[in-house]
Amino acid sequence: MSINYSEGGSNGLVDGLKKFFMGCGAVTFIMFALVMCVGIFADDDDKKKDVTESQVGLSDMRNDSVQRRDVLEGDPMKELESLTGMPEVKAEVKSLANFIKVQKQREAQGLKTPQISYHLVFTGSPGTGKTTVARIIARIYKDLGVLKSGHLVETDRSGLIAEYVGQTAVKTNHLCDSALNGVLFIDEAYALLDEGSGGYGSEAIATLLKRMEDDRDRLVVIVAGYTNEMKKFIDSNPGLQSRFTRYIEFPDFKPDELVEIYMNRVNKYGYTLDDEAYKYLQDKFKYVYQHKSKNFGNGRYVRNVFEQTITEQANRVAKQSNPSKSELNTITLEDLRKACDFVKY
Known about the structure:
- By secondary structure, this protein is α/β, with parallel strands linked by helices.
- Helices cover 58% and strands 10% of the residues.
- The protein contains 15 helices and eight strands.
- It has helices at 9-24, 26-54, 58-63, 76-82, 87-108, 130-143, 167-179, 200-214, 227-235, 238-243, 255-268, 275-290, 299-317, 325-329, 333-342; strands at residues 67-69, 120-124, 152-155, 182-187, 219-225, 247-250, 272-273, 330-331.
- The strands form two sheets. Strands 1-3-4-5-2-6 form a six-stranded mixed β-sheet, with helices on both faces.
- Helix 7 (167-179) runs parallel beside helix 8 and helix 12 (275-290) packs parallel to helix 15 (333-342).
- The longest helix has 29 residues, at 26-54.
């Protein structure tokens, strides 16, 4: 059947369509409409799929352990010096800063400079100040002109590994994008090895290495974890070995340093320890240090003990009808003993 569009302009077109559908019958018309609808919905689904794939990693990053820490304020070297203990760590950071400073000065004078890798490996137990020092180094890098921003993006395996094949690379790229001009800090990085990662760990590592090369002037990566596990992690891939050449070891805090960390919190919040409580604190932390396991939390353990201490103190003081200022501030032996019994080390 032919349709004449030329006669009568738009009226001719309408008449032609009427003749077409009358000739084809109602069934043909219904089939034609169904085909058009299926095509529209299929196209819409494709668009939705494209949008979803382009957003892989964004929602994951919001749900996973990814934290952005703003640029450290003040003098980073003074902040470093104010930290309890870790003399070897402080010396390593100062040496790194001095080296970069002098190489920048040589470069400004037109002198030859070796290629510098700013990426770092932090080794040691949990709670030894690795995240705090990473944030200080990010600020030092900013002050020395290595990085423009100097912020820190902190994550672990869950911030890099996605649920399905092909999504890990996208998720890792989004994470690297968020850390550009700053530092990407990956805690327990050894967990990216493929044992238990479903094969996605290798994809995350390969993507990370590529971004470290492509954005070498804008992205610094610091990986952290237990000493032996991190050595195994770095040795597992030649690309990791070539990019991570500087290690900083974070030792466990000694008993007197654990006491100092605790007392810093006591003073910060205006509490006081009576003499019996202070003596117990010294003896308890010495015992804990001597009997600590590999998973000892160091500073985290001290923080948990302090938080439980003031909880026990509040439970005791709350029973008094009108406590004095001194009673509101004083931590007793019993408060501290209950807290130490409650918190596992």
